[in-house]
């Protein structure tokens, strides 16, 4: 009897020799990928140098990738720019562990039970309220002056963290400050790097060197705290990098969108006065601020800090929607919406869509075993800082 036929790769634009589809990607890959979905369907494959990229862009495709085949499709690629290589990452990192191994499970459990459990977060509510009041006081003192909201928000989020000693509201910002350094690490990891697509041809050593130097400086800044707290250095750096800039950018975008949409801003104010009177709201009141919460969702929808999710990697070849996803393919997931570029919080008012990983059409934090472990913390920090 004939061996069973392997289904084909998902459809996609025809690759060029050698470069594959790299030239098709353009300057805004997430928009390009969304437009490919309109032409080729919910599952698209592209060749980037030596790598296969599979793009799943419908909720059905997301469910197949992040639920049905979650185990096989939840590996990671270690970006070329990282100073540590795959093997090392597997032992020290959560975000970049190639497989969901014992070390990864240990770190995830630590996050779930110690750092971001309901009880742990609840126990810090007073600290958070105090810190956001400090922010309001600081901002009141700056009336009439130019304030860089991004820096104030970043500093506040940092202060909300146990690492507050490192960065004070009026402390170091700008060039050389911790915001600047974290920004540079994220930039280095997020910059598309040809060496990721042609691993043999490691010509762009400069970027890797740069990220090594930045990391060394960050380690130097954190050493005393780590001594004091006995926290694993890498996990700490990782949580800070993953957690602070993402929440800060969501808050900053929400502010910008609300300032551009006076009607939405009025609704936020009216709801605030109705629910909290003239006082600043307590954290426990935030869940009653429905309109504020849908503004946060809309900001996450329109400006997701990780627009394509962190790429997953197929640990083995796997069949998805009658196509073959080959072993080692990278998987990403852009989001597609009606009237996508408009800030319209109302779209969430009439739906029960939430971002906790069960609604596959809206996954700003991902879903499945690799879902963002900081979600419970971000879900508290973002509306709290924004409303203040
Ligand atoms: C608005 C805020 C945030 C957004 C939108 C966000 C989004 C995401 C997304 C999309 C992923 C990838 C999920 C996947 O691969 O399927 C992720 C992973 C991750 N996030 Fe977040 N995140 C946010 C805040 C945070 C915070 C506050 C922390 C921690 C303090 C954090 C720590 C991490 C870590 C460690 C991972 C890697 C998890 C793994 O690979 O197992 N994030 N996040």
TrEMBL record:
User: Which controlled-vocabulary keywords does the entry list?
Assistant: Heme, Iron, Metal-binding, Monooxygenase, Oxidoreductase, Signal
User: Keyword Nucleotide-binding on this protein?
Assistant: no
Names of the cofactor(s): heme
Name the InterPro entries on file: Cyt_P450, Cyt_P450_CS, Cyt_P450_E_grp-I, Cyt_P450_sf
Instruction: List each coiled-coil range.
Output: none
Q: Which GO terms label this protein's molecular function in UniProt?
A: heme binding; iron ion binding; monooxygenase activity; oxidoreductase activity, acting on paired donors, with incorporation or reduction of molecular oxygen
At which positions is heme bound?
372
**Does the entry feature the keyword Heme, yes or no?**
yes
Q: Which Pfam families does this entry report, sorted A to Z?
A: p450
Q: Give the UniProt family note.
A: Belongs to the cytochrome P450 family.
Task: Indicate what this protein is called per its UniProt record.
Answer: Cytochrome P450
Which organism is the protein's source? Escallonia herrerae
